[in-house]
Amino acid sequence: MSKIKRLERLLLSINSKKQFTLKELAVEFQVSTRTIQRDLLSLIEMGLPIVSEFGPHGGYRIENDRILPPIGFTEMEASTILYSLESYHEEGFPFLMQSRSVMNKLFHYLPEDAKENWEQMQKRLSVQFPLPPQCAVAPVLLEAAIKQKIVTVLYQIKEQKRYCNIQLIGIFSENGEWYGPAYCYSLMDFHIFKLSDIQHAAINYEPMEVKDFSKMTIHNWPSQISPRNYLTLDAEIDPEGLQYCRTHHFLHQFISKLDNNTDVLKGSVLTTYIDKIAEYLWPLKTNITIHSPIELKAIHAQWAKEISSQYEPILNM
Question: CA-CA distance, 56 to 183, in Å (whole number)?
Fold first, then answer.
């Protein structure tokens, strides 16, 4: 039996024992006690916490955690584990130390190209829980975003189906839906695609000029894009509103401070995304003063009117 095979079997054997001696293992593996001692030293060097105990009932035991036998992960499986553990880096997480240890071990043994792939995944995927229903095109679109390839999609808009080539910045989940901000070569502008409206997607391997999204990620794209059809966001926020905006995945990118120390939201936003931005700003209520765009103010005024109308019969009593 080769040494590697023997070490694997030895690891499995001592994991199943509370305590063991060199003689017991030597008999089990039909080798000398000196050979077993050398094998144990090899396992200790690999990080196995083996402790020796002296006395008439002494021997060896594994301290604290037992070590699992070698497990073969594919690069994508390892990247999936790494991404999952990213969500548990808060100081209050009970297994923070173990979580970081797992990440360090996995990342250390990833090949260089797989490390680059993992770093790209961090830039191109953003997940909020609870997750949306499974989306058939999401894996293709995420792969295209990671590799920065153009995708041909069959997209349905208001009963009409159309093919278009898009280059995704990444994909994100929000309120039970998957979305993909992308540059659309048909519109010659940026657009937010709802993935449930994409019926088919395939990476386009034809030679086409791609956009440089190296500095643009799924976490900073709203403040990085330069759309053709945009509206200018300009709003003042008070300290309470500032705290909300700082923790918001979309709004935090537009926070700036004027010379008079006033906190404001400033930037260009997609015209087609204005309804969503209105939704993001609605919880601020009186903690925000919107100067522009007028379309945003009109949406909020309409929502306020609809709410007010529901209470008119009570007010007239």
Answer: 74
Its pTM stands at: 0.73
Range list of H helices, 125-246: 138-147, 221-224, 239-246
**C-alpha atoms less than 13 angstroms from C-alpha of 116 in its C-beta half-sphere:** 6
Q: Please check whether residue 290 is in contact with residue 235, taking contact to mean a CB–CB distance below 8 angstroms.
A: yes
- Buried-exposed string 245-257: b where 16+ CB fall within 10 A, e elsewhere: beebebbbbbbee
Q: Give the ranges where the chain is alpha helix by DSSP (H).
A: 3-15, 22-29, 33-45, 75-86, 96-109, 112-124, 138-147, 221-224, 239-246, 274-281, 294-315
Q: What is the 3-state secondary structure (H, E, C) of 293-317?
A: CHHHHHHHHHHHHHHHHHHHHHHCC
Distant-in-sequence, close-in-space partners of 239: CB < 8 Å, separation ≥ 6? 263
Structure confidence by residue, pLDDT tens digits, 219-266: 999 999 999 999 999 999 999 999 999 999 999 999 999 999 999 999
Query: Cα angle at 175 between 169 and 180, to 5 degrees?
Result: 15
DSSP 134: P
Tokens of 66: 């037992």
Residue 57's pLDDT is 58
Query: What are the backbone angles phi and psi of residue 94, rounded to the nearest 5°?
Result: -60, -30
